[in-house]
Amino acid sequence: MSVLPPPLRPTVANQVLARMLLRTAARFMPEESTTSAELIALEPELGAVVTEDVAVPGPRGPIPVRLYRRDDAEPRAGFVWVHGGAWMFGTLDSPEAHAVAMSIAARGIAVASVDYRKARGRTCFPVLSDDVLAAWQWVHAHVDRLGTTQETLHLGGASAGANLATGVVRRLIAAGEQAPATLVAAYPLLHFVLPPLPEDLVAALESTPPPFRFTPRMVSLLNLNWAGVRYHEDPVAFPALGPLDRMPPTFVMDAESDELRASSAAFAVALQAAGVETGYETVPDTFHGYLAQPGTPAAQDGIRRIVHWIDQH
């Protein structure tokens, strides 16, 4: 495995930037959690799912991973899932982790939901990527814990988690290790600077409430906090950069009203141009983060699309 450079020691200016970003982002990315009982009340079928918490060894200490599978049927495939949260928020109990994993597992696909250290204080790139990579490698080596096989193990994530999952795929390929069967990237941010917004996205954003908007300033702050200027061209930190021809089949799923669609749409076009099997879909009438809204039509639609992609492969 190639060794990434150590994370930079944050300067005073970067620490001030991070504190400002935390105050801004926390207004629309609160630390939320959801319980299994709450989810089962919304969707009784989820009652068939059993979970197991595991502390996976990592380069900087244990990494929390939660395994999900039905207790009444063998899984059709396995799926390693990485929640989002601007690289700064989220736990295994966050809706984008727990609700998504439980819903996919209830539909017959075993899930390993991965947590990671957050980009706060002195923690930044590549620490988060190292955590997700170590978690993937552990699940890949212990895939029997999910009741599936390495050949049917997929990898995916949402938002910042999609960035991390995609970066890990690039690391696996560079190291000559087995890549996942497919990659799933839900409303990801994969560029240091957003590409131009598609015309239909400009129109959709006109009616988008401010809490769901990712202004250029916010995108810049997020990316600087995550990786800094030093790594703005690094294809692990920003996986839309560099050659893509060796990527596995990839499903990119967007929100209709989301500035980050400029990044994911450009990524899908680049994948197709590189000859990679690519699925690209936009879930209508959605804002960024809709998978974190369990029980809503948007979240259920997104789950259905992810399961359909995995079943196709």
From TrEMBL:
Domain Alpha/beta hydrolase fold-3: 80-291
One Pfam family linked to the record: Abhydrolase_3
Entry keyword Ligase: no
EC numbers on record: 3.1.1.1
Enzyme class (EC, first level): hydrolase
InterPro entries linked to this entry: AB_hydrolase_3 (IPR013094), AB_hydrolase_fold (IPR029058), GDXG_lipolytic_enzyme (IPR050300)
Keywords assigned by UniProt, alphabetized: Hydrolase
Keyword Hydrolase: yes
Any one GO molecular function term: carboxylesterase activity
Annotated protein name in UniProt: Carboxylesterase NlhH
Organism (species): Microbacterium azadirachtae
Gene: nlhH_3
